[in-house]
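Cross-check.
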Amino acid sequence: MATVLFQVGAVISLVGLYGIPLGASPGPPGPGYFALNLGFAVLAAVVAGWVTARLAGSRPRVAVGLLAVALVVVVLWGFTKPASQWPGWYPAVLALVGLVGALAGGFLRAGRAAG
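Predicted model, tokenized:
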């Protein structure tokens, strides 16, 4: 669910900032695209952390911690490949956003469930 939310946000960002890219000349996205994309990534990570904690049962913090580590590994593995056209800073920032967002969402849910 969170992945779908992130992908929908990325498409909305792209279309909203650049229009429908059919026939558009290729070029790197601008700062607005990165800001919106990272914003959607935060939202998706928080939702993922919250849902993970909700479904985890008796050990929500362990499950959310594993989710956060998995997000970091997947982002760094996927965005640092030689064919990647992303700026050098983007994988580290996206990994940090995923880590912090997932932990925040999970701890919000775990804290709410405990209280």
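Helices lie at 2-18, 31-55, 60-79, 90-114. The chain has a mean pLDDT of 81. Passed to J.P. for a second look.
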